[in-house]
Amino acid sequence: MNKSLETQRMEKIVSLCKRRGFIFQSSEIYGGLNGCWDYGPLGVELKRNLKNYWWRVMVHERENIVGMDGSILMNRAVWKASGHEDTFTDPMVDCRSCKARLRADQVIDKKGIQQCPNCGGKDLTAPRAFNLMFKTFVGATEDESSVTYLRPETAQSIFVQFKNVLEVSRKKLPFGIAQIGKAFRNEINPRNFTFRSREFEQMELEYFCREEEGIKWLDYWLEERLKFYENIGIPRAKLHAHEIPDEERAFYSKGTYDIEYDFPFGRQELEGVAYRTDYDLQQHIKASGKPLDYFDEETKQRFVPHVVEPSAGVDRTVLALICEAYDEDTAPDEKGKLETRVVLRFHPRMAPIKCSVFPLLKNNEQLVAKAKEIAGLLRPHMNVFYDETGGIGRRYRRQDEIGTPFGVTVDFETLGEKDRALQDTVTLRDRDSMKQERVPITELVSILTSRVR
Ligand code: ATP
């Protein structure tokens, strides 16, 4: 069977991720652990750039949003009150022929007959609810009284700490609490590389507001979040705001959108933006008996705020960034012959390495010393990579393949050997156009910092 172009593209992406150190299988030397992934030296930089940019535009650049960092293990009562213990489930079906365990929505329906997508078998069990939370025990005794769960979302610690954060930050409505952190779900079928993992990270904002303004803020955050993805290099044409119809929405939500991206394996969710009303705070008020409310100084009214939640996945967005960036074009090799070039066209803001620095030749002490000096000059401002091995064309190719947007080369002109006017200038190469400009070393920091911010 011919593989589709999109399947081939995805295979190339997965193999590049491993080969260049973006993403490895967790516990690989022991055969891996399904649904778990490790980020290598380049992957961790990409992930950090994403999280830092989210934090910058969602927290630092806004006067009414503060952050927090909650624990992964929480009192079991939280998960009872939030509804997760009873209802955070996926319907699961077993195939009696090949023993595959499937999510009910993956079963193939052929003219009303249910079939296993693995083996085509028709002998399937009835759907059963499977709770996605990882159960664990806190303390030395393993009994019912010590049970809790690894958090399946970061949001609940924000709701539970609502009053504390409100008091210390002294914010007025509308205001938000943001958090980035790990979440765990025992997904029935982890798949599509890191897209559906069992351990992943979320970037969540809970934006508290008055009931009358809930829908207004839902629309506002949907638009803000779409802009965010554009600002990290994902074009609007590949993003879709899918409005969840009434019958599919959680019963407490008055409006939910999924922001979806066209992955090579299909259109899939990157983020949910949901108007959750006052459901979560009310649940915790009922269960804890504590007043998680807000006092309005002007009207002297006390009430429970409503909340709009943009909830994004770090790992899914990293995968979208890599899929979007992956490209192949042609470029001349050392001898001028055209060859295929693999290039990750990351937005400079997201690129793991911002600038490479090369001496033209490895065996010229002056070139090497100058290049090392320039790398040192740039390092406090951005992640740079110094490389002196191999021909200059190959060195550029290696950087193109990992998405480094800029390359600085120190040549004999830099040393002032050819033209005095060019002394202390370097070539600055652009990854996408492959054009080179000559710039003074003294201007490098300001030119580059303005382009990668
Ligand atoms: P899906 O329908 O794909 O399982 P969801 O609607 O259950 O996702 P939410 O509960 O809304 O997801 O979680 C918010 C975000 O967290 C998602 O948009 C996604 O980016 C991320 N996320 C959720 N589950 C996973 C997972 N198993 N692996 C990676 N990211 C995830």
Commentary on this structure:
There is one protein chain. A hairpin with a 5-residue loop joins strand 24 (425-430) and strand 25 (436-440). Helix content is 30%, strand content 29%. It has helices at residues 5-19, 41-60, 76-81, 84-87, 155-160, 162-169, 214-231, 279-288, 314-325, 365-378, 392-402, 441-452; strands spanning 23-25, 37-39, 65-67, 89-94, 101-103, 108-110, 113-115, 128-131, 135-137, 147-149, 175-184, 199-209, 239-243, 255-263, 266-275, 294-296, 301-303, 306-313, 326-332, 338-344, 355-359, 384-386, 406-410, 425-430, 436-440. With 453 residues, it is an alpha+beta fold. Helix 2 packs across helix 9. The longest helix is centred in the first third of the chain and has 20 residues, at 41-60. The protein is globular and about 80 Å long. The mean pLDDT is 96. It binds adenosine-5'-triphosphate.
How do the helices and strands line up, and which of them pair or pack?
Blueprint: H1 5-19, E1 23-25, E2 37-39, H2 41-60, E3 65-67, H3 76-81, H4 84-87, E4 89-94, E5 101-103, E6 108-110, E7 113-115, E8 128-131, E9 135-137, E10 147-149, H5 155-160, H6 162-169, E11 175-184, E12 199-209, H7 214-231, E13 239-243, E14 255-263, E15 266-275, H8 279-288, E16 294-296, E17 301-303, E18 306-313, H9 314-325, E19 326-332, E20 338-344, E21 355-359, H10 365-378, E22 384-386, H11 392-402, E23 406-410, E24 425-430, E25 436-440, H12 441-452
Parallel strand pairs: 3-11, 21-22, 21-23
Antiparallel strand pairs: 1-2, 4-5, 4-8, 6-7, 9-10, 11-12, 12-18, 13-14, 14-15, 15-18, 16-17, 19-20, 23-24, 24-25
Helix pairs in contact: 2-9
The protein binds adenosine-5'-triphosphate (ATP).
Adenosine-5'-triphosphate binds next to strand 12, strand 15, strand 18 and helix 9.
